[in-house]
Amino acid sequence: MDHQFNVADDFLLDDSFLRYCIGINENDVQYWEKWIAENPDKRPAFDRARRIFDIVNGQQGRLDVEVNRFRSLLQDHIAHNLPEEKVRYFSRWRAVAAAVLLLAAGTAAWYYYGNGKSGRPLTIAPIAQHDVQPGAPKARLVMGDGTEVILDSLNGNGLQEKDGTRIGKDKGKLVYDVTATSGNQVTFNTLATPRGGEYQLVLPDGTKVWLNAASSLRFPTRFMGNNRTVFLTGEAYFEVAQNAAQPFQVQLNNGLKVAVLGTTFNVMAYDDENTVNTTLVSGKVSVAQPNGNSVILAPSQQAVLAKSSRQILVSEADIDKTIAWKMGMFEFDDDDLATVMRQLARWYDVNVKFSGPVPDKHYTGSIRKQSTLSQALRILKTAGIQFNIEGKQIIVEVK
Which segments cross the bilayer (predicted)? Predict the structure, then answer.
């Protein structure tokens, strides 16, 4: 083969190069590694083509797309990411390259920042030999009598609490039906997701809850009295059913309380994070500390409680970033490496070990949560940092 390529789309037109990117043909892999070593002046265009491939293929959450499907994926990418007039303006392949490069300021590009230096595009590294699959909808339900139910095994007949409350699954969501409830005794259930799991829930009052990985929600099978209180650890997104006579309250382990009437908001309260964040999407909420200090949030505002100082700061929120996990994405905006790795560890159910000091690197960009772990790590690789997957552990090697 003789390749005289000068720009990224020259490479993307070549089936052998696509097979090299996918890694499905050893001869192609060996050829292109030798070719780029012998043609170092082509490295910028070569690396750009690799980034384009990884971005578009990464949006599919997989690394095994066949060559004959990849071009259709690129065409779909163009149809959904560029206005029609721009698609007509460029040739098909130059439009592909332009579309992905335009995303450099958006959700598909990755940049790293260190020691105050300006950002540079990341160089994509080879695929890891060992891999970990992404998380999935899974959780366990602890009923009032202590019975634990793995929800993956919950059949169509559902469950029934002692007070008559019926519990069923509807399109992957846990749904509570209180029409048959009797008596005055309040029974509590707990929905808990493991690391590598998430789940949706419809509470007895119709409030919808999305529970992130490594989280739990304790709630009554019916709401009685003058409020609706639930108890959260970890992270959850709430769409609260309106009931002015019964304000909805989320109680956290540290005593922080989020009170609402009818609204949508996100609470992040993991034990291993330095802050507790309450982000309001719509409506109005009050965030109160046990000492009586409280703040009122307006839509698109965030209350951040620093665990070290116990002070609450209110600022404008990045809503897209905050609720990205609910939409199937990781969103990072100048986040340090430790923060990024904590999120990945929860979703892929792995432990992270640094071989040296945590590098002073900051990341901005997106990863689909359906990506495999090796794919996520490929996007995060930078010069001087290497990731190895050893079973359920990520070794971060700093050189």
Answer: 95-113
Range of the domain at 26: 8-109
What are the pLDDT tens digits along the chain (399 aa)? 555 677 776 787 777 887 787 665 678 888 888 888 888 888 888 887 887 776 665 544 433 444 445 555 555 554 554 443 333 323 333 333 333 332 322 233 344 444 443 343 333 334 445 688 889 999 999 999 999 999 987 776 788 888 888 898 888 899 998 887 766 778 999 999 999 999 999 999 999 999 999 999 999 999 988 999 999 999 999 999 999 899 999 999 888 999 997 899 999 999 999 999 999 999 999 999 998 889 999 999 999 999 888 889 999 999 989 999 998 888 888 888 899 999 999 999 999 999 888 888 888 777 888 888 887 887 777 545 788 888 889 998 866
Q: What is the pTM of this model?
A: 0.70
Hey, which residues does 148 pair with through a beta bridge?
A: 142
**Alpha carbon distance 232, 244 (integer Å):** 22
The whole-angstrom distance between residue 64's C-alpha and the CA centroid of its chain comes to: 21
177 and 300 in one domain? yes
- Give yes or no for a contact between 176 and 167, defined as CB atoms under 8 angstroms apart: yes
The verdict on 200 and 75 lying in the same domain is no
